[in-house]
């Protein structure tokens, strides 16, 4: 595994998405004999993290190559959703935006890694395509 290739691919993905290093986390794990990459975004305003996308492959480099191919084309292949939600214990309503194939996938990205009872969703809107 080439650490140089991993760093280069992570940088390319970050730059393509226009995010700062603190706003994007690359989380790798072994799952059923494959490597899985969960690409997590962190909102700088409220510090909540959400799943952007996951990919599986033989190793980290393959996962990152698949992720880079995805970020180059996802705007053309997925719909945009606006979700309004509030975390348990907060008073402020939050708005987040997700790209997904359907509303269920958008909600999965919002709830990724959380107990379903920690967030209350108030609305999910499919945004008009441009």
From TrEMBL:
Domain of life: Bacteria
Entry protein name: Uncharacterized protein
Species, as recorded: Hymenobacter glaciei
Lineage of producing organism: Bacteria, Pseudomonadati, Bacteroidota, Cytophagia, Cytophagales
